[in-house]
Specification:
2 copies of one chain form a homodimer. By secondary structure, the first copy, chain A, is α/β, with parallel strands linked by helices. Chain A has 12 helices and 12 strands. In chain A, the strands form 3 sheets. Chain A has a 6-stranded parallel sheet, sandwiched between helices. In chain A, strands 7-6-8-9 form a 4-stranded parallel sheet, sandwiched between helices. Chain A binds a DNA duplex (30 and 30 nucleotides) through helix 2 and helix 4.
Chain lengths: 344, 344
DNA sequence: GCAAGTTGCGCAAACGATTGCATATTAAAT
DNA sequence: ATTTAATATGCAATCGTTTGCGCAACTTGC
């Protein structure tokens, strides 16, 4: 039932009649300390239940051994999975991870950066908020000379390493698949935001169309925030068209889900009358009826790769900071919502 | 393009020909400093782009202004929502939050506690992992005299404040509802784990049955890990019974989802032949077909309440540490999966 | 005009660990 | 036996803030 007086290296030192320096070195396995002393130190450290004060250490050598991760939201399977990938690597390297959510809010993103900076994290890994168009706060991170790595929602406005998936390719594959299934009027839900992922998906959509000789019809491209309600609204808008689409590719799974609801409410047959596809392979997509065709982003892999690049940069200590750009290949997940013809 | 030399209060002091103490006090708005000096300090702080070193401050007064949150996983809507609630309050009080995931892994939970402790967090808010049956690591937190508050997955083995929902009541309401819909053979998916929430839900189930004169049949209570696959297996087992159930109440939404899949695959009509209900109101439950009846846990409210209790305890500084037990009322969300009769 | 407050600020010691340099002890080399 | 190296540890400064105590200077009251 011992109370406050936290045990420090000095207590250990005192008990062993050596100095704190020796204890410190012993605990850090410094080769200049004899094995005998090391054993003794370790032993009494256990006995006294010594807990190193990381704060003091951090103050001394300016490293907190904590890295900050900023995601728009942690409750999206994709992000939490990436985070998990990063965590795995970080923990192995004995780094702690502090997860922050920007909630796609620009102001909050700035605050978060400041909080992390003043917590003196050793580096930051981030996915940019949807509404962010100014990147000065990220530049401040770079000005501090601590590593910054972006994943998924990245930007070329910054000179940083970025890990993303090939959104263009993913979208292209989806649309090509829909065409192969016989769709000729394929709509697309996209976002007006500056984030490159949506622009890339749109590009994949248009290229796939033109490569297969299908004319581009701007009426079929609907901009929104890509949430469930947006998907519903977009779909309702599309159904009012003179000639309704026979396929919908939403840049988000939630958008596709909204479309599915509206289609079902209006008794359209999916995929026979309208084929449907989303993007992200959110877990719920396999629970819907029909199950939703989508694009898997290998989130865990992305996390690991991101962490890898990050720690590489961390070790290299701001010199060899050649920004890398890693592009991972996504995978098309075909499910009933788009499968008009029999098998695969 | 100025590089390393971080600006400290000493630089400010030097520039103003005062001492660091004064600068420190000025920055902390100490009443013993004249307004004039304060203005001057603030001004040059801006000019020099001064960033306080929280680590040094933390070292000095033993408080990091960081609190640790431990959740089994951040990608479950319930947990991430609670986290968000906590975050809101914490941020307002100028506390940073570090989110850790135990992944329901006992070892990892211990490691996490140690990591947080050595990061010198000012307190810990946690939801216990499913497999945890020994609570010594939490006792270590208490031994450090820093506040510890548990939410949702709690235990009475510790003398801590806990915030939970009335799982008993939620379960009772579900089962009563199923009975009112005409179900007479209601199965229940539960977990063998020590966590009280599942025991409470089971108790609600049995009480509701007996209160309505329905005999308890142990064949209808299936233990599992409550994930999707478990739900599938459990349902398959139930369908092999001589007399199949006409209702299933799963202690988790994922378990209910697994049951739904199996039932649909076997062409059973939901809810006509088998009514279905889950627990947690996970977002996907409204996307399934039929949409899943479930129990909402007011996660955001729980988060806020938890944070409230936590900071109360933090302020009170380990004296008045009377452990509180807050029980929130859940709400039954009735959807098609259980609605045999017409309206509500 | 003097004791007693008040106000505004400086001094210096913390907080706990790390680390360059110095020192003492022992071993190896000549 | 004496110089040279290696080995093992101690000394003391340092990281950037905070804070108890002390000391001026300036009010105030009588």
């Amino acid at each position: 039932m011992e109370s406050k007086p936290k045990v420090t290296i000095h207590h250990i030192a005192e008990k062993l009649n050596i100095t704190a320096s020796t204890v410190s070195r012993a605990l850090n396995d410094n080769p200049r300390i004899s094995d005998l002393t090391k054993k003794a130190v370790l032993k009494t450290a256990k006995e006294l239940n010594y807990q190193p004060n990381n704060i003091a250490a951090a103050l001394r050598h300016g490293k907190s051994h904590i890295i900050g991760i900023i995601v728009p939201t942690a409750d999206r399977a994709f992000f939490s999975s990436v985070v998990r990938g990063i965590e795995d690597i970080a923990n192995n390297l004995n780094y702690k991870v502090i997860i922050c959510q920007s909630y796609d809010n620009y102001e909050k993103e700035i605050q978060t950066i400041d909080a992390l900076l003043s917590a003196r994290v050793d580096g930051i890994i981030a996915s940019i908020g949807k509404n962010t168009e100014n990147f000065d706060h990220f530049k401040r991170v770079q000005a501090e000379k601590i590593p910054l790595v972006l994943f998924d929602r990245t930007t070329d406005a910054l000179e940083v390493s970025q890990i993303m998936i090939d959104d263009y390719l993913g979208a292209y594959k989806v649309v090509e698949h829909l065409i192969q299934q016989g769709c000729r009027r394929i709509a697309h839900f996209t976002s007006p935001k500056k984030v490159s992922i949506f622009k890339e998906r749109l590009r994949g959509y248009t290229d796939a169309l033109s490569d297969h000789g299908i004319p581009y019809d701007e009426d079929l491209v609907v901009q929104s925030n890509l949430q469930l309600v947006d998907g519903r609204e977009s779909m309702e808008k599309l159904l009012k068209l003179k000639e309704r689409p026979d396929g919908v590719f939403s840049a988000s799974d939630y958008g596709a889900m909204g479309a599915m609801q509206v289609l079902k409410e209006n008794k359209y047959k999916i995929p026979q009358e309208v084929a449907l596809a989303g993007f992200s392979n959110d877990p719920f997509t396999s629970f819907t009826d029909p199950a939703l065709t989508t694009v898997d982003q290998f989130s865990m892999t992305m996390g690991k790769k991101t962490a890898e690049i990050f720690f590489e940069q961390l070790k290299s200590g701001d010199k060899t900071a050649v920004p890398q750009k890693i592009v991972l290949k996504p995978e098309l997940i075909i499910r009933e919502s788009s499968l008009k013809k029999g098998s695969l």
